[in-house]
Each structure stands twice: as C-alpha cells, then as structure tokens.
Design a protein that fits this description.
Blueprint: E1 17-21, H1 26-36, E2 49-50, E3 52-53, H2 63-76, E4 85-95, E5 100-104, E6 111-116, E7 124-126, E8 131-133, E9 139-144, E10 149-151, E11 160-169
Antiparallel strand pairs: 1-9, 2-5, 3-4, 4-11, 5-10, 6-9, 6-11, 7-8, 7-10
C-alpha cells in the first residue's frame, strides 16, 4: 500500500434548530405513551433512551399525532433548501427518576424532532452547538439529525413525557 495523502480536519456544516409551541392535547399523548410502554414491542431500556419508550412506529400512523405535527410540516415547507420528506418514525418516551438519554444523533435521518408533553427540569443538551433546552409543556424542537444530544439523569420525582420523531428525504 502506498498512501499519497491523509487529511484529518473539521468542516463547517450548515444545520438548523427550530423551537416553538404547539396546540395539542398533551394528556391524550401521555395516556397513549403509558399504554405503549406496556406493550410487548416496547423499547424500554433498549435504546439510547435509558428509560421507558414505545415502539419506534407507535405514533407514525396516529391521526392525533399527524394533526399535531402538520403545522411544523407547513413551516418546513416554506424553508429554502428543504427537500421532499416523509415521516419515518414516531415514538413516545417517559423518563422517570434516574432515567436519562445517552448522547447520540439520529443520522442518517434528514431531521428529527421532539415534542414535550409536560414541563420538566431535565434539560436536553446539544453539546456541538452549545444549546441547553429546558422542556416546557407543548413545546417542540426540530433539528438537523446529525446534531448530537443527550440528557443527564432525571433527579426529579416527576416523570418527563415526550414524543420524538425522525423525518427522511424522499429518494427517487
């Protein structure tokens, strides 16, 4: 083998990070998550979420969820450079006392999001872009899927509920 060049460097990459608030029935989704985490195909403690989690597709075809995220999609459709996309997966999570989320990203998905169903002191951290977000009821974040994020352990006796989802590009 003959190496002619090796480069190890960083490249500045364009990303997006959007936050807002939705009008939704958070109690409906909390009840659905409590059902989903008891089903056989749950993802409890099997993923980066070191807590309770529904199946990956639990909310993908849920009409209430789809209606809730349509305003987000309407906004994304107005953004320049956004390619055609579809909802890949949507799941619910519940992080109770001592639960947390390991640092991870959602690549190779196009973008990802989270909708918080209750206010909670457990902060979502995005180390690469130095953003810390404290969950507020019905608030949401949409972000480029390659952004790493995590939470520290929930030291509150209060449960945190959220809906997460991934969006992918249509490939033709």
């Amino acid at each position: 083998m003959i190496l002619t060049k090796t480069v190890k460097d960083k490249v500045e990459v364009e990303y997006f990070f959007i936050q807002g608030v939705l009008d939704l029935d958070s109690n409906y989704f909390i009840n659905e998550i409590d059902k989903g985490i008891k089903e056989k195909n749950n993802q409890n403690f099997k993923t980066n979420v070191r807590g309770l989690m529904t199946s990956w597709q639990y909310f993908t075809h849920n009409d209430h969820f789809l209606k809730a995220i349509l305003p987000i999609f309407d906004y994304l459709d107005t953004m320049e450079k956004i390619k055609r996309y579809y909802l890949e997966s949507a799941w619910g999570l519940k992080e109770s006392f001592t639960h947390y989320t390991i640092e991870h990203d959602h690549a190779p998905n196009y973008f990802s999001g989270i909708i918080y169903l209750n206010s909670h002191p457990q902060t979502l951290l995005f180390p690469q872009i130095k953003i810390e977000y404290k969950p507020r009821k019905n608030s949401f974040l949409i972000f480029s899927s390659f952004l790493e994020h995590k939470t520290i352990r929930n030291i509150s006796k209060k449960d945190k509920y959220a809906l997460s989802f991934n969006i992918n590009k249509h490939v033709y």
